Amino acid sequence: MAVGTTARRGIDMFAGLLRIVGLLIVAVLVVHILLVVLEANPANTFAQTVAELADTFDLGLSNLFQYSEAKLSVILNYGIAAAIWFLITAVVVRLVRRLG
């Protein structure tokens, strides 16, 4: 096996790992939106954990829009953060594969 092939395989694995991490972050944000919209019990451990993780990955956008309807604010703010994370993930994965 050539050195270039091994390096390429390692880069592809790293890019795949980055894609998985990015998509997990997007999934946390989307699940948080769903839990809020479907009015999950906020005292539930799962809902609390997802909310805390979503607050970690919100890119400071959790209060970008503040409507009187809290659900709409969550959909917009966390939805925009999820879209940005998706875009960041796609760009970083593409750069890693291109540079490799």
From TrEMBL:
Keywords: Membrane, Transmembrane, Transmembrane helix. The chain crosses the membrane at residues 17-38, 75-96. This is YGGT family protein. The lineage of its organism: Bacteria, Bacillati, Actinomycetota, Actinomycetes, Pseudonocardiales.
